[in-house]
UniProtKB/TrEMBL annotation:
<keyword id="KW-0249">Electron transport</keyword>
<dbReference type="InterPro" id="IPR003953">
    <property type="entry name" value="FAD-dep_OxRdtase_2_FAD-bd"/>
</dbReference>
<dbReference type="GO" id="GO:0009061">
    <property type="term" value="P:anaerobic respiration"/>
</dbReference>
<dbReference type="InterPro" id="IPR036188">
    <property type="entry name" value="FAD/NAD-bd_sf"/>
</dbReference>
<feature type="active site" description="Proton acceptor">
    <location>
        <position position="331"/>
    </location>
</feature>
<keyword id="KW-0285">Flavoprotein</keyword>
<dbReference type="GO" id="GO:0050660">
    <property type="term" value="F:flavin adenine dinucleotide binding"/>
</dbReference>
<dbReference type="GO" id="GO:0009055">
    <property type="term" value="F:electron transfer activity"/>
</dbReference>
<keyword id="KW-0472">Membrane</keyword>
<dbReference type="Pfam" id="PF02910">
    <property type="entry name" value="Succ_DH_flav_C"/>
</dbReference>
<protein>
    <recommendedName>
        <fullName>succinate dehydrogenase</fullName>
        <ecNumber>1.3.5.1</ecNumber>
    </recommendedName>
</protein>
<dbReference type="GO" id="GO:0008177">
    <property type="term" value="F:succinate dehydrogenase (quinone) activity"/>
</dbReference>
<dbReference type="InterPro" id="IPR011280">
    <property type="entry name" value="Succ_DH/Fum_Rdt_flav_su"/>
</dbReference>
<feature type="domain" description="Fumarate reductase/succinate dehydrogenase flavoprotein-like C-terminal">
    <location>
        <begin position="525"/>
        <end position="658"/>
    </location>
</feature>
<comment type="similarity">
    <text>Belongs to the FAD-dependent oxidoreductase 2 family. FRD/SDH subfamily.</text>
</comment>
<keyword id="KW-1003">Cell membrane</keyword>
<keyword id="KW-0560">Oxidoreductase</keyword>
């Protein structure tokens, strides 16, 4: 089946990475000083990679479109980071983390990469603690853990509800140290608009200074893309407004295969859409499912206040349907269950597209524990709730404050209303075991690649993968390539390949400005987002996907005929930035629908309505679709499918069950 080489090392699974690290080719310190590496993106994957490679002696250039590396979207992650430390002595292990991740991804991930991720997870925590990241601790001093979806152990380390921010500050500090030592050149407010290839290898990028509009040429012996995911193809998502696919898509157009683009994660705990005025959605961390219970009224169209609905008239549907995991089922399962209840008429709130996330039971439980600790006996419920609220506030206070500010409701007094929304993308640039794309010298790290999460990412695994790739994987694997490049001198940026790439970028930018149509960029982005959500969102079917492909093609033609981009190219021009990103989304959206139409099965976040069990669960077809779909870009926005067969030699493949 496979016609691409994943370069997985030989040997027994548990020894692959150890043996690889011991035998991979190295670059000696003197040679590292003459090798230049470009890193695009400054989130967890990009900042950790840039800092680590510079510490090793490489000359590094790091690019981000934000005004500071610490504003990367990694900062928005709230709930935690997974690691197999087994501090709770509840049976966790490297193998269990590996197993949970493969199963959580519905058996559509590569075993070798996932085991390596589980293996290095413990090192990540040690690294972050050494950097001073203030992870939560228990009274005795050990790092604390909490539960996340898809697991039955507590392995999620956290820093209140701002884990991503604290981890990014740790990586940012390491990066800033290298910048201060002159080992990293940092380019803020720069956007990569093209990969430069020479003799088939990635040798640099064309970047645009977003303040002046100037196009710049930058050489690198290797190029690392750590530019995040593409959830904003849906317009409304939990991603930052600037998050986009452009860096990865430019690489795709230069020959880097794009894998599993239809694998999109719908997060179950988001604040519901409130109107057409919204440009993004707000995530309520999955950590809230650790202590919150999800329910809907048992009666359809029940308009009573949630606090007026008695316990016996509430349907705790996740606990009812999945007793073994309850509220901690994986995200795709929880999201579909919420949609099913709302579609059946049990939704709450004005839109009826929401369910309740209720903390009352665990607030009282925490209060009883606190009362016992303080020697308070026979207290009333109000006292228990008051004491418990302080515990909840310490664990989740910033999230509760955020909810109150956005909705005007006090979640300490009344249950939160939540509904699924687009969050993370499991698809991305295809990479081999070394994290190299199909373009030699071009790597993809973190959410920009497809490698570790299969068809559904377990909560708290994104931060784990980003830091694993940057701190512990790429520093070894890049040596296998760069050890053969030590005789390659820095290529002058007046080389014809750089000139041609810059001219191509300039032509595209000028084309945007000369169309002078009647519609804004946002008009087309919103239109694309509606098509994607309605027909390639939580549920897909053959008819809808076929219609979506035709509609996206028509929308793309209209975009290139009628988009209006004001201003000029040689100035600060946010509309011009957006135009390029939306143009890429209009091509990516089509590929996502093509991939979803081609995959005639349901798995993880990809739910084809034609392929489901009698109980409404995802129905895989392992005989025909146990592969990673790697798409090659062809001229004229056409795509050719390549397949990487997924072999499971260490895990028994079975129908996923959380009951």
């Amino acid at each position: 089946m496979a016609d691409i080489n994943s370069n997985i090392p030989e040997g027994e699974l548990t020894q692959k990475w150890t043996k690889y690290r011991s035998s991979v080719a190295l670059v000696n310190p003197a040679n590292k000083r003459s090798i230049e590496v470009i890193v695009v993106g400054s989130g967890l994957a990009g900042a950790s990679a840039a800092a680590t490679l510079a510490e090793m002696g490489y000359k590094v250039k790091c690019f981000c479109f934000q005004d500071s590396p610490r504003r990367a979207h990694s900062i928005a992650a709230q709930g935690g980071i997974n690691a197999a430390k087994n501090y709770q002595n509840d049976g966790d292990s490297t193998y269990r983390l590996f197993y949970d991740t493969i199963k959580g991804g519905d058996y559509r991930a590569r075993e070798a990469n996932v085991y390596r991720l589980a293996e290095v997870s413990a090192n990540i925590i040690d690294q972050c603690v050494a950097q001073g990241v203030p992870l939560a601790r228990e009274y005795g001093g050990l790092l604390d853990n909490r539960s996340f979806g898809g697991t039955q152990v507590q392995r999620t380390f956290y820093a209140a509800g701002q884990t991503g921010q604290q981890l990014l500050l740790g990586a940012y500090s390491a990066l800033e140290r290298q910048i201060g030592m002159g080992k990293v050149e940092m380019y803020t407010r720069h956007e990569m608009l093209e990969v430069v290839k020479i003799d088939g290898k990635a040798r640099g990028i064309i970047a645009r200074n977003l303040i002046t509009g100037e196009l710049e040429r930058h050489f690198g012996h290797a190029v690392l893309l750590a530019s995040g995911g593409y959830g904003n193809v849906f317009y409304l998502s939990t991603n930052a407004m600037g998050s986009n696919v452009t860096a990865a898509w430019k690489a795709h157009r230069q020959g880097a295969f794009f894998a599993n683009p239809c694998f999109t994660q719908i997060h179950p705990t988001c604040i519901p859409v409130s109107g057409d005025h919204q440009s993004k959605l707000t995530l309520m961390s999955e950590s809230l499912r650790n202590d919150g219970r999800i329910w809907v009224p048992k009666k359809k169209d029940d308009n009573r206040k949630p606090t007026d609905i008695p316990e016996d008239e509430r349907d705790y549907y996740l606990e009812r349907r999945y007793p073994a995991f309850g509220n901690l089922v994986p995200r795709d399962v929880a999201s579909r269950a919420a949609k099913e209840r709302c579609d059946a008429g049990y939704g709450v709130g004005a839109s009826k597209l929401a369910v309740y996330l209720d903390f009352a039971a665990n607030t009282e439980r925490y209060g009883r524990i606190e009362a016992t600790k303080h020697g308070i006996q026979n207290a009333d419920k109000a006292t228990y709730m008051r004491l418990g609220r302080e515990v909840v506030k310490e664990k989740y206070g910033n999230l509760f404050d955020m909810y109150a500010q956005i909705t005007g409701e006090d979640p300490y007094e009344t249950p939160m209303r939540i509904y699924p929304a687009v969050h993370y993308t499991m698809g991305g640039l295809w990479v081999d075991y070394n994290l190299m794309t199909t373009v030699p010298g071009l790597y993809a790290l973190g959410e920009a690649n497809f490698s570790d999460h299969g068809a559904n990412r377990l909560g708290a695994s994104a931060l784990m993968q980003g830091l694993a790739d940057g701190y512990f994987v790429i520093p070894y694997t890049i040596g296998a390539y760069l050890s053969k490049e030590i005789s390659t001198k820095a290529i002058p940026t007046d080389h014809p390949a750089f000139v041609e790439a810059e001219n191509s970028v300039k032509e595209t930018l000028e084309r945007f400005l000369t169309i002078k149509g009647s519609r804004s960029v946002d008009h087309f982005h919103k239109a694309l987002g509606k098509i994607m959500w309605d027909k390639c969102g939580m549920a897909r079917n053959e008819q809808g996907l076929t219609e979506a492909i035709a509609e996206i093609r028509a929308l793309r033609e209209e975009f290139w005929r009628d988009v209006r981009v004001p201003g000029s190219m040689d100035e600060y021009n946010p509309e011009l930035e957006k135009a390029g990103r939306v143009a890429d989304f209009l091509e990516l959206g089509e590929l996502m629908c093509i991939d979803a139409l081609n995959r005639k099965e349901s798995c993880g976040g990809h739910f084809r309505e034609e392929y489901q069990t009698e109980e409404g669960e995802a129905l895989r077809d392992d005989e025909n679709f146990a592969y990673a779909a790697a798409w090659e870009y062809l001229e004229g926005v056409h795509f050719n499918l390549h397949k990487e067969e997924l072999k499971f030699e260490n895990i028994k493949v079975a129908q996923r069950s959380y009951k």
